[in-house]
Design a protein that fits this description.
By secondary structure, the protein is α/β, with parallel strands linked by helices. The protein is built from five helices and six strands. The protein has one domain. Strands 1-6-4-5-3-2 form a six-stranded mixed β-sheet, with helices on both faces.
Amino acid sequence: MNRSRFVTYLNHFIKARHYRGHGIHSPYLYSYVREVVIVKGDICKMTIDRYPEKKVQVTDSAEEALNSDAYISIIKKPFKTVEDKKFWHANRPGMNILTIHLPHHIVIFRDNRVHNQHFEIRR
């Protein structure tokens, strides 16, 4: 793990406000966190198994995830580059998405019925 990734991980651990799903108002996201995120395992595989009828995309790039038409996008090891992080912060606010930011993943749910919400979770 390089220095930048370590600092990002440490920063996430300090700033994450939601522990094990507590404080998340959406019942849909709360159940996802309790049933998928907290269980130690492969988040990508568990998400695909939980939502077989939905389109799930797994990627390494924030740009790919935000420009995708998939209902659920999972970014593995987010923010590998500074440009990726800048793209994320510049383009996320105007979208109708729910995001769950974990130490090593970001899960994006697209839903036009909700406002933009972002949750940082510690397991």
